[in-house]
Every structure is written in structure tokens, then in C-alpha cells.
């Protein structure tokens, strides 16, 4: 049996479906490109039948990504498979992933069918998907709670129908490692055609066992692990990619298995996903938590000074975390910025040096010293802003009397070429600024969550504000980053307003196309 484990990333499907505010097509593409650099073998990037937005993002990613195989999800229904095949058809090579539930609970309560009927649907779906590609994956949803005889029958029939990858999900994160390993072992012992497919696992983390279950499964012969960056996903999430990759790399002595993951991309990809998805990483999270390589007690620090391997089983550098924070000032030239970006693993296609350098100079004027993490934050913000933003915040002036709980804000906003100035009072500087922006833009939104965090270290940190706002039943995620937290708060609101504006334009455009069609036009 091969010692290569395929990494199937589902951050943009299972991970994305669990977010409060969905990602834009541009954000999904940014993540897909980072996953490609990270070296994932397969990336599942959406569920095209679910919405026109999902269809568009799958298609855009399929058109762009060349070094990882792009995959889309479909239920065991022809219309789902058609949508997946159509969205993926722009790719050189692609995978269709089709699934149906197999556990008694799901078959009886959710599907309201007999197991034999479900088996027939699964076989039909795999055969139908094979019309579009040889690379068909079939998943037995809730396999972890499926009676083993039924699971063996289903796996054999799906392979017979043409599935080249069979996925065994522990959909509700119910099994424990010995039990899950036993399921995989039984499949290898009892399914006669099992050698004609790659066995994959997809474990959820409801009991915190997703990574342990996946490792147990590869020890029993599974050769694909489905996982997500930072373990994001439904409920408690999925198996975390960075943990799997580093377990297989660090304990190769015992496991003897390999992946194609370029570990040095882990830190950067993890931060990007956390930022764009507005999903903070707990400080003590394995591999990518802020404390994962921090040594607090005197005894540990003493040990580390004597030899790094006293308290570290892997180095921060191995996941691309650079402990040397070189500082730059407004006297640093463009070549210094370019060089630092190269050292941090960014290529020139990842950002615009002109825009980054302009933003760097402005920040250096305000802050004095600029650090690596500031540059990364600026690149991230550059990725989010668009040249055609409808609203631009030109000026914000705030006066605040904290003892009285009173503040006044004046804002100047440019909206599509027209400049508007408005003032408002509030119970604090952010409240006043938000009211003034609402007046100046003529738009008001419901803020559902507001989060302020430090981006960087100590007093030098920038303030980052993440807000989620609701507008016409949809959630939008806005981000602002500045040396001043009120300015960061205002920028986050303006970001949300631009997202809403763009969503309205898309809706208008679609409505016009629909009207034209109804009138018999092209
Ligand atoms: O958890 C699950 O079972 C899934 C399937 C669609 C693979 O996400
Ligand atoms: Zn799942």
C-alpha cells in the first residue's frame, strides 16, 4: 500500500457553510490560491446547486487553480450533479463528490426511504457523475453510525458503479478512535473490490476526536483525509489540516506516511482563513494558536535557551512562523519592502507593490516603526478593498468626553464622486462615528457583532475591528485596520456598506437580465 496520504481540503465547502457571513467570490479565490500554494491535493470549493453565488465561485476557482484538483459537492440527485459538472467543466481536471446518508437515523428520519432505495440512488448518482469525469468520489453520510453490514454493501456497490474515492464520514463526530479505526479495518477486510478505490475519511470534531480518528483511519489503510484550515466547519468543526499535516510530518518515525503539504505555508494560510472568515483562533490551539510556540514558565524558558528541543517538538519556522520581526521605518525603500515580502513567502502576484508601498508609508508616518505582521495586515486589507468602492471615508474627526459618556463625530464621505459631510452625537466615539456615517451615506445597517482586536504586538499593535451586519436577511462582514480604533471601527462600517452596495448592484443587474428575458430580449 502506498505511503502517500492525499489531503482533501474542504475549507471552502464544509468550512464556509458554517460561517456567519458568506465569503465573496474574490475572498474564496484568495483562499483557494493559498490552498494551492500550501499543496493540498484536492480542494472542495462549494456546492454549486445551492446558490448562483456558489456556482460562480466554484467556476472562478476551477478556472484559476492548476496544481490542485478542484472538486464540488452534489447530493445524489441528477440536478445537483449537472450543476457541479457545469461549474467545474472549465477546469482541466476535476472531481465530482456525490453523497447520500447511510445510517438508520438518517435513512428513516431524513430521507424517509428504505436502505435498498438509498443504495439504488447512490449507484445511480455515481454512474451519472461518471458521465462527466472519471474522478468521482462517493460519501456515505453518517457512516460512523451506519450498521457495518449496510456500510460494506454501500461501499461495494458505489465502487462497482465507478466511484474512485469512497469517503467514510463521521458526520456527527460520534465515534472514538478504536471504533472508527475498526470500521476502516472491517471495510478493508470485507469489501471485495476495496482495492479499486482510495478510502477517505471526513471526521467532525463534536467530541474533539476528529484528528485522532483520522490518524487511526490512515493507520488502518485510509489514504485520503478530508480536513479544513483551522478545523473550521459545521458545529464544532472538521479535522484540522495543520494538525494532520504536522502529525504526519513530526511522527513519520511511527506512521511512515507522507503528504504533499508545504508546511511552511501553514501559518500564513491559517491567518488568512481566520481573517477572511472572521473566525479567531484560540490562543492554545495546536500548531497555529498564538501560544503554540510561546514558553512562559522560567523552567521552560531556561530549557529553551539551552536547547530548543527541550520543549519544542517542531520549530515555528517549520510552519512558516518567523520569530524575527524586522522593523521598517518611513526611510525604508521599496526594495526593502519587496525583500521582506519575499522572505515572508509572498510573490509579486500576491499583492501590488505600488499600493503596498503607499499604504506602508502612511502607516510608517503614523506609527514610526512598521513590522512584518503590519505588512501582512496591509496586504490583507488591500485584498479586501476594491478600486470601484462606492463609499470612501475621506475624513473622520471625533471629540469625546468619557466622563459624561458623550461624543461628537464629523465625517466626510465620498459616494460615487459626491462629497457629503455630516455630524452626529453618540454615547461614545464609535457610536457617534457610526451615526454620522449612516447620515452621510443615507444607509443604515443592523450591527450584529463588533469585535476589536490587536493586530501585532504590544503597544505597536494596530487596532482591527471586525463587524457583522445584517441587511435584508443577509450577513456581511466588514473589517477596518488602523492605528486608531475609532478610525478602524469607521473603516469596518464603510467596508460593510460597500459590500452591501455591490450586492445590491448584482441583484439589480440580475433583475434586469430577468426582465429582459421575460420581455423576450436576449
Ligand atoms: O460531514 C459530512 O458527512 C459531510 C459530507 C457531505 C461528506 O460533510
Ligand atoms: Zn462534513
UniProtKB/TrEMBL annotation:
<dbReference type="Pfam" id="PF08502">
    <property type="entry name" value="LeuA_dimer"/>
</dbReference>
<dbReference type="Pfam" id="PF22617">
    <property type="entry name" value="HCS_D2"/>
</dbReference>
<dbReference type="GO" id="GO:0009098">
    <property type="term" value="P:L-leucine biosynthetic process"/>
</dbReference>
<protein>
    <recommendedName>
        <fullName>2-isopropylmalate synthase</fullName>
        <ecNumber>2.3.3.13</ecNumber>
    </recommendedName>
</protein>
<feature type="binding site">
    <location>
        <position position="238"/>
    </location>
    <ligand>
        <name>Mn(2+)</name>
    </ligand>
</feature>
<dbReference type="InterPro" id="IPR002034">
    <property type="entry name" value="AIPM/Hcit_synth_CS"/>
</dbReference>
<keyword id="KW-0808">Transferase</keyword>
<keyword id="KW-0464">Manganese</keyword>
<keyword id="KW-0479">Metal-binding</keyword>
<dbReference type="GO" id="GO:0030145">
    <property type="term" value="F:manganese ion binding"/>
</dbReference>
<feature type="binding site">
    <location>
        <position position="202"/>
    </location>
    <ligand>
        <name>Mn(2+)</name>
    </ligand>
</feature>
<feature type="binding site">
    <location>
        <position position="14"/>
    </location>
    <ligand>
        <name>Mn(2+)</name>
    </ligand>
</feature>
<dbReference type="InterPro" id="IPR013785">
    <property type="entry name" value="Aldolase_TIM"/>
</dbReference>
<feature type="region of interest" description="Regulatory domain">
    <location>
        <begin position="392"/>
        <end position="522"/>
    </location>
</feature>
<comment type="similarity">
    <text>Belongs to the alpha-IPM synthase/homocitrate synthase family. LeuA type 1 subfamily.</text>
</comment>
<dbReference type="GO" id="GO:0005829">
    <property type="term" value="C:cytosol"/>
</dbReference>
<dbReference type="InterPro" id="IPR013709">
    <property type="entry name" value="2-isopropylmalate_synth_dimer"/>
</dbReference>
<dbReference type="GO" id="GO:0003985">
    <property type="term" value="F:acetyl-CoA C-acetyltransferase activity"/>
</dbReference>
<dbReference type="GO" id="GO:0003852">
    <property type="term" value="F:2-isopropylmalate synthase activity"/>
</dbReference>
<keyword id="KW-0028">Amino-acid biosynthesis</keyword>
<keyword id="KW-0963">Cytoplasm</keyword>
<comment type="pathway">
    <text>Amino-acid biosynthesis; L-leucine biosynthesis; L-leucine from 3-methyl-2-oxobutanoate: step 1/4.</text>
</comment>
<feature type="domain" description="Pyruvate carboxyltransferase">
    <location>
        <begin position="5"/>
        <end position="267"/>
    </location>
</feature>
<keyword id="KW-0012">Acyltransferase</keyword>
<dbReference type="Pfam" id="PF00682">
    <property type="entry name" value="HMGL-like"/>
</dbReference>
<dbReference type="InterPro" id="IPR050073">
    <property type="entry name" value="2-IPM_HCS-like"/>
</dbReference>
<keyword id="KW-0100">Branched-chain amino acid biosynthesis</keyword>
<dbReference type="InterPro" id="IPR000891">
    <property type="entry name" value="PYR_CT"/>
</dbReference>
<comment type="function">
    <text>Catalyzes the condensation of the acetyl group of acetyl-CoA with 3-methyl-2-oxobutanoate (2-ketoisovalerate) to form 3-carboxy-3-hydroxy-4-methylpentanoate (2-isopropylmalate).</text>
</comment>
<keyword id="KW-0432">Leucine biosynthesis</keyword>
<dbReference type="InterPro" id="IPR054691">
    <property type="entry name" value="LeuA/HCS_post-cat"/>
</dbReference>
<comment type="subunit">
    <text>Homodimer.</text>
</comment>
<dbReference type="InterPro" id="IPR005671">
    <property type="entry name" value="LeuA_bact_synth"/>
</dbReference>
<dbReference type="InterPro" id="IPR036230">
    <property type="entry name" value="LeuA_allosteric_dom_sf"/>
</dbReference>
<feature type="binding site">
    <location>
        <position position="204"/>
    </location>
    <ligand>
        <name>Mn(2+)</name>
    </ligand>
</feature>
